[in-house]
């Protein structure tokens, strides 16, 4: 698949890998995640200022590089290799496309250039605790149930003159929500039953906003609880624009498919790096007077992992060019990362289970991503349902039961 990459893409990969090798090795992770931001601010400003990473897929009109999703996915594959703690995913992959799709000209002009140069980070705050559901990856998000459905729970928006709103409610497991300079908050407006979900812009220093960093399985993915109490907010985009595009659920689903393709590439980077580190270890570690990697059983296990990783990489590269296949590519990449990182711990032997070795961080990244963006079987189930593979309204599970299978 490398032969299909452009010269520009190869240069992005080479430059980014060189920089991350020097400044973002495994030893740098504890210091980075221990900061108030949850990442290394100096390295982030270097990635943004020198390489233009957050603006890679934004148009030149807003200070971006004008590249495609494929280039951003390739960059995220490299950040996944080193488990880089950074606001890139929350800002450039989740928030920026929504601002570009729904924002008014004034909102885009005010926000996107600051995102492109790295001076503004953003986070997507979605009630219900399930990012995958809200993005339409594991189920239909059009009913708004994930956002409170206009009933109790979720986040509610109350109207004011001039289009301003006041938000009430909370959102859990908000990626980089504790440090983002801007929050994109999904809230229900209009009451029940005619209410609908809209996205609102909330500055990080808005009154009535409380953000609490949570303890996460994967410390390189900081999560936060966001509470809003009479918090002023600005609707993202004009109401007629949002409705013409299918509303916030449709925009979230479109952004979700693109994000899935990018996340798949990142997960491939994580799996590939774990595999490479394991190969190097078994070549050097000796047992019974010979390298562990020389045993046939170990060779077979590594060969199986290599096939998994390369298959997931092919799927991720295809999805980067055709985001419609993003959820399926993400399912394959998450599964590959989970199995590969688990085997990496096993093949490292006793040292793989210790805090001193980095193997556990790769396993936690794979497990954490499966919790945040999966699980894998639901990604596949919903993708099959959207494709109509099992008939109208029938899921693979229902089809299996109808065929007498369990």
TrEMBL record:
<protein>
    <submittedName>
        <fullName>Acyl-CoA dehydrogenase family protein</fullName>
        <ecNumber>1.-.-.-</ecNumber>
    </submittedName>
</protein>
<dbReference type="InterPro" id="IPR036250">
    <property type="entry name" value="AcylCo_DH-like_C"/>
</dbReference>
<dbReference type="Pfam" id="PF00441">
    <property type="entry name" value="Acyl-CoA_dh_1"/>
</dbReference>
<keyword id="KW-0560">Oxidoreductase</keyword>
<dbReference type="InterPro" id="IPR009100">
    <property type="entry name" value="AcylCoA_DH/oxidase_NM_dom_sf"/>
</dbReference>
<dbReference type="InterPro" id="IPR009075">
    <property type="entry name" value="AcylCo_DH/oxidase_C"/>
</dbReference>
<comment type="similarity">
    <text>Belongs to the acyl-CoA dehydrogenase family.</text>
</comment>
<dbReference type="InterPro" id="IPR037069">
    <property type="entry name" value="AcylCoA_DH/ox_N_sf"/>
</dbReference>
<feature type="domain" description="Acyl-CoA dehydrogenase/oxidase N-terminal">
    <location>
        <begin position="6"/>
        <end position="118"/>
    </location>
</feature>
<dbReference type="Pfam" id="PF02771">
    <property type="entry name" value="Acyl-CoA_dh_N"/>
</dbReference>
<keyword id="KW-0274">FAD</keyword>
<dbReference type="GO" id="GO:0016491">
    <property type="term" value="F:oxidoreductase activity"/>
</dbReference>
<dbReference type="InterPro" id="IPR013786">
    <property type="entry name" value="AcylCoA_DH/ox_N"/>
</dbReference>
<keyword id="KW-0285">Flavoprotein</keyword>
<dbReference type="InterPro" id="IPR046373">
    <property type="entry name" value="Acyl-CoA_Oxase/DH_mid-dom_sf"/>
</dbReference>
<feature type="domain" description="Acyl-CoA dehydrogenase/oxidase C-terminal">
    <location>
        <begin position="262"/>
        <end position="387"/>
    </location>
</feature>
């Amino acid at each position: 698949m490398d032969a299909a990459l452009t010269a520009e893409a190869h240069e992005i990969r080479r430059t980014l890998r060189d920089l991350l090798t020097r400044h973002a090795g495994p030893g740098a992770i504890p210091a980075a995640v221990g900061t108030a931001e949850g990442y290394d601010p100096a390295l982030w400003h270097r990635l943004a200022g020198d390489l233009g990473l957050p603006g890679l897929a934004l148009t030149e009109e807003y200070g971006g590089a004008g590249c495609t999703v494929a280039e951003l996915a390739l960059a995220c594959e490299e950040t996944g290799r080193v488990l880089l703690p950074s606001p890139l995913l929350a800002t450039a992959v989740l928030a920026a496309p929504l601002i570009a799709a729904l924002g008014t000209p004034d909102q885009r002009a005010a926000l996107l250039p600051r995102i492109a140069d790295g001076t503004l980070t953003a986070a997507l705050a979605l009630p219900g605790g399930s990012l995958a559901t809200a993005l339409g990856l594991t189920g239909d998000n059009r009913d708004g149930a994930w956002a409170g459905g206009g009933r109790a729970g979720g986040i509610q928006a109350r109207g004011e003159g001039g289009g301003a709103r006041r938000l009430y409610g909370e959102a859990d497991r908000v990626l980089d929500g504790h440090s983002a300079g801007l929050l994109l908050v999904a809230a229900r407006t209009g009451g029940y039953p005619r209410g609908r979900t809209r996205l609102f812009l909330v500055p990080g220093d808005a009154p009535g906003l409380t953000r609490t960093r949570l303890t996460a399985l994967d410390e390189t993915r900081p999560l936060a609880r966001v509470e809003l109490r009479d918090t002023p907010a600005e609707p993202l985009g004009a109401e007629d624009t949002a409705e013409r595009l299918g509303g916030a659920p449709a925009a979230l689903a479109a952004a979700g498919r693109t994000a899935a393709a990018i996340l798949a590439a990142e997960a491939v980077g994580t799996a590939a790096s774990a595999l490479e580190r394991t190969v190097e270890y078994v070549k050097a570690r000796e047992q019974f007077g010979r390298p562990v990697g020389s045993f046939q059983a170990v060779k077979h296990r590594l060969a199986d992992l290599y096939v998994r990783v390369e298959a997931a990489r092919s799927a991720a590269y295809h999805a980067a060019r055709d985001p419609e296949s993003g959820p399926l590519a993400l399912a394959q990449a998450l599964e590959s990362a989970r199995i590969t990182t688990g085997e990496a711990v096993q093949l490292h032997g006793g040292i793989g289970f210790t805090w001193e070795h980095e193997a556990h961080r790769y396993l936690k990244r794979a497990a954490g991503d499966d919790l945040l963006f999966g699980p894998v079987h639901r990604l596949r189930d919903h993708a099959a349902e959207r494709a109509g593979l099992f008939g109208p309204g029938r899921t693979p599970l229902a089809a299996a039961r109808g065929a007498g299978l369990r």
